[in-house]
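call fold target=Transcriptional regulator
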Amino acid sequence: MNKVYEYRVLKKMSQSELADVVGVSKQTIFVMEKNNYIPSLLLAYRIANFFEVSIDGIFTYTKGGNKDV
């Protein structure tokens, strides 16, 4: 679960603009906002740093929430 959408909207940015800033595709931002993609630690850091919040302020880890982890 994450708050990428909420932070992006507060900054009045498009998915493409955020993708350009953090170095990924628009599709990556789209699926991340739908909670269908877990970002790498590096990408999570880039996003959190851009929004000037901690990683756990934007991304929430739920134990057992993803069978692949």
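return ok
Residues 41-51 form the longest helix (11 residues). The mean pLDDT is 92.
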